[in-house]
């Protein structure tokens, strides 16, 4: 049936053949045992376990009309606004369990995007081959509960040039050969979340295109162990600590990872090609995907915000200041900022749009962009407040090794203690947790750049907001009869949408 | 049937007897003809016309199960989340028509609050007299489509003292005599929106109380022309201009008004008393009402934001700068801030709670408070950006009278013109509109204080957010076993909730 | 000697002949008696009285080496950093006395700018006629302690076109005829502070120019009663209240005014022409002036901030909440924001630059722009906090007339009272003061647009900050050898500097 | 003479005996060779080299009247406002050379504080033993150009209790024995900047005290190799990378460190005791020191801001987007925020106060607090903007080891390249620099907590701002005669000043 346990997922990773993954310059044999990637495996695994854990199974399961079975929600095609709402609620809960990004959303959003784009091409242009291939693929994914990554962001070379204008022709992933049984692709995708710990990856175009860019307008899915696929895992803050022993400093937490995905002339069979030279649809593709992904941030980042607020409150209690007015002021501000992000995501979900005749439930694009744009700002503010509450020790606390040194331990226990009922070690644990969540790639940089940079959301908001209409409203109130504004909306070429 | 036209409403106002209303020290005979109050009548009237206008009738009508008829939504008891959503959507549209507060929400929210409070007392304590009286009153209101004000905020004397502790015993409205046929009340309510142009007013308690405050824990409804009721209308920015002639400077716009409502030993018959000495329920009363009202701000203030953005965009076009990057940056920021407020209100509506066995649909308290708290901040930022775009002329533009002076007019037309296709007068009209919306009591001060001051929302957010739970989440991630936080939540006495 | 009393200034205004001033469409005979302009006269007058008042005479007097006498600082040429520091300190104190803009800075800054520009042309190009004419004029101004306005902002027509490209050739003030004894000018200047209550006005160019714009590159000074000069006074928030009787609502405060200054072919004799067809120096002219003026905002706006903080604190005391933590939090934030603006202005003064061989003390351009840019933001935030503290009554308080109505007065005194030791009338007075300062053209719109819009400061900051150098610093730390950044600085054409 | 070279400083560190320093649980033999501490030694060393480098020697040297020689400014007693200005200017330049905190300010500020406090006790109470001992010590420090740390922050136990009330009597450093030749102290100080790489440390009290706390009111200086002194160096973000090989990822940068300083019954001879049981002066001590230190942040943090802006601009150029309006907007905003912090610090310096009859030049307390309070906010905003410009790769870039893997290198060079003229490696180098500056303890957490938490500055601002006076100003403008505000200023007990 369409539900794997977390252990089955981990087992599956071990069965991948020939995956070519590099961490800090060295090839990794087993991602599930590697100190750098294990925390990432654990976090991804949580998405499978969620379908069995009592407190999340209601949210994490959904009935798929495609295979007539219950599936893990992370491979589900949204059947209505309630499904979109369930998405953000599930993501918040999963952040509570992982304390980081669990990396399975991009693939999920890619599935829903392909469902709409292939469906739309069928509806509008009568060409059904894409949607048919995709539905077959979807069934396969759902039946096997696959772990998917999604790869959109090209490396992009000179940012101001289109794919076909680049000095480096491979600056965007492209088709270098068309064969009877499929295509051969070359190029690289950057910032690919969770890429080393998935079964398959769905590749998508990253911007609007013109006819000259047709060879770049492609989308397909392949297993990660396809020949010619290379993954170079990126660095993270504090990553070297993962190689330390110990259960406090040695980063016992889960982490996400992101990586560089390189295609060295990789063959993709036709049945896995869902979009080919469809440059006209490329901008829409990016828009549909981005907004799905922007909505999701409401859930995962507010969940991470909860962890940070919780750690801050815990530290305040250990210092005996949790009831001081200025501390309560800060805690309340953090909660306010956090819930603002979340509520925008709920609005983006409840006010969903149906893009296909028989479904294709998409988020509300205005509120999805509002959500993500808030997420590009508020986490830095929440972190700042958390650091304020935590005290300077957040940046100066001794190491776990100091704490375990028998000569130092009694001194540190004596001097790190705040309110007597809490052991000093708890304070140290909360400080380390706060350090590694509030100052993490997942909470800061990813909040800025995931699902498109701040500027991408601004362009979307500018397109979606109806300036013409509001000028008419104002003109009417001002007693002006004739003012009709030309359309402020820029050409929907979308190219900046996924640009950083 | 339960729907009046705007004209019928205005006609109704004229039929009120003996209303004792003062504007700038003088008694007003006919509010519908008075220059100070006419703009307020027009704005209130829009809520009636909405039920007939093509673009709003869908939203502005609702079916009432109480009288088995279609009623104006402004007297409707919400039957589910969709009704709460319809509320904010309707309010946004009405702001587009009025450019100001239309003053009918407080009475509406009071009806829904009384429905829940009287219903709750019946459910919990078996006492049904309140709910029965209220349902009778509700039917009367719905059948006659009455214009209602709601009066909550007492004058409060020394803010830090409870009603019974005040040096001035009448600092909160109270019962001074209990008679067989009813009660006699004394005191005053401040900041009462729309009070001079309604048929009736619903009076509510303004804070949590103790047993000693029992005589202050009352709620009732009376016609505005009840003997002993005095209304002193408050000043507004630019109000004296209403007495000027002219169609540009003479404030041809609609406006809201707020007033002081004084009860000089006013008799209220029992059938209009819905809450009497129920001090235990007083805090809950305030909370239920406040959150209804906080949710509503998402609609009206974002609608007003649209007007301000529209005027700013119109001015930018007239200066020829609408396509400059820094202007688009500002317009986009305004739209972003505006939609953030709105989306929080949508979340507060969709995530509604059912408080009674058979209904009693209430907003989500977290998102309602988030909504209002955003509204206490963002309008000042939107105004600042609007002023930036509009240019310094916003504060220095000549008067309409200058413009109409035949000697000056050609000079002003010549020198005030920006882009040639737009007459200079249009620029002047948009400047005046922007001045009187972006710098208005409705958009600034009311955004801060309506439905409770910022601090009231902060206390609510602090109560609703579960700090204990998030500390447990953080502790669990940090490997701490035992940390159980005592409840941060302060005693739910609510007294600060409606304080400034 | 070079010092007039305030009364002498007022007397001087009455002696002006033929001034053609319009207020609300009507010609004004005596500005010192007109309800609309009297508050402005009083505020300007304070700059004269300051030279005699005990608490300000030390700051308000300076020794002029040009006439060998003590002069009012408002006509002084800065002789070193201490003079620039004295400027901002004096302005802050004067705001305390006036509660508004006192309107004499623009003329003062114009004098200092002309001293530098004419001096610079002499130093660089050997042409001394401008500086000689100017020094003669300066002596005349200092000896007679004249009240000067400065007029820079042209009406500008289509913002994106240069003067010579405009469809309306008079969109910028220009020379239409050159005669043996002088020039004839035509055009209009907008937003001219204090223009109706001065003796003379100094006209300046508003932007960088090209050779084609030469006829627009002019600066001169003329008495306000020169034939062909028309002044149309602009409206202000709440302005109509000035026509009311009464000492509370009738705006007993001082106010500034700004106006439209129209030149209908006005003759200017050569000895009053200080800059003629000097298009190459036009951009620098604007830059020198703007930065002087931006520095000054540190003083006047922080002084106004003090008034607003004082009124807020006074109201908090009257409600009995001045010691509540959240109120103290807000008061402290207001003080912090206010002192931030002020300290930037002090830095701009102390870090002055000497532009001429023998003086020409100018402000530091980076910190002057930082000062003004802070001023475009923080007053809105300070106002918001003031409104928060003041309570909703700020937007709903009854009128003075209500208060004086014998029937209403006892009721209002009873119900408006907070802490018993303060009469209700004091609360009303503080509310009106706060309304008319925190929501005034002087504190909001002028803070945004005076001395150039926010965008003008941003361009200046971008020009002054050395991006090239900091890239080198970063490159060196990163171990990059060769990175030399091309100059980010945009062409110094300055045209946006004094734009809207 | 009183000037050592950097190399002499390093040599001096090697000559310390018996220092007991722990890093990650292990005793460190030679701090100058230890991978964790070497970057810190280099940064501290820069303060010595500055006195010889051509571009800084003018700022870094000063003439000491105490020893009649030129000394390194870092051991200089300020002789006037110019010295205070030179301080912030020097600190900014040193940040450019180090890219981090150079750790010598605390000791410097401690010297100046002791000069004032001991001098003040002599002036006010006639007791000259402290000042005499201190001057002797000062001469010794100046002649030998010692590297000093300053230790103020006690571990503080339960934050809400005074020293004498703590369950742990050693929660604040205290005298446990008084001997004929000196005192014996016990306790610990936290967050001590640069502690492992100094010659001596000056210990100071951390809060205002009462008579019962007398044994805690002490200040003294001792060499770091005094028996009983233990240092436990704290962790930093990314610290484990220092153990990696390599010149890009292996953190080739300088870093600061902070540590835990433990006194296990350490003997201090009387000649090194500068303050003993002087509980009455303890609050003032903290205030004098804190404001010195708060002023300094203007220099070092704006210098660090320059590095971050430079790296961001360099990255924008490598992506080809440096001239895009939204990128320029962000760069300009960063510069504006950065210069705001700096200009407040200049004001704090120029507006210095003289606290002793013969000197004792102190900063202006209002502007020093404004400076530091800005520093607690703006770096987070600057970092956010830097991350926005840098792109997502900031959090996902491959490692140096990947880059050096011969198989991966050509691929990474191909795909990481932006604008062709810049090698991909430069981009990687700038990304790592930006990661390790914009997300560092020095730029974020230290900016919040150094020299006292944000709340400490707020209390100072509240004390220094004259609320009483501004209420009088407002009352006078409002026509209120009698309003005299009681003093808002809280008791100057100072205890919160150095609290978090």
TrEMBL record, chains A, B, C, D:
Entries under InterPro entries matching the protein: Acyl-CoA_Oxase/DH_mid-dom_sf, AcylCo_DH-like_C, AcylCoA_DH/oxidase_NM_dom_sf, HpaB/PvcC/4-BUDH, HpaB/PvcC/4-BUDH_C, HpaB/PvcC/4-BUDH_N
HpaB/PvcC/4-BUDH C-terminal domain boundaries: 284-479
Pfam families from the UniProt entry: HpaB, HpaB_N
Keywords: FAD, Flavoprotein, Oxidoreductase
UniProt xrefs under SUPFAM superfamilies: Acyl-CoA dehydrogenase C-terminal domain-like, Acyl-CoA dehydrogenase NM domain-like
Keyword Flavoprotein in record: yes
Protein's UniProt keywords contain Calcium: no
GO MF entries: oxidoreductase activity, acting on the CH-CH group of donors
Top-rank lineage group of the source organism: Archaea
Domain HpaB/PvcC/4-BUDH N-terminal: 5-274
Protein name (record): 4-hydroxybutyryl-CoA dehydratase
Organism: Pyrobaculum aerophilum
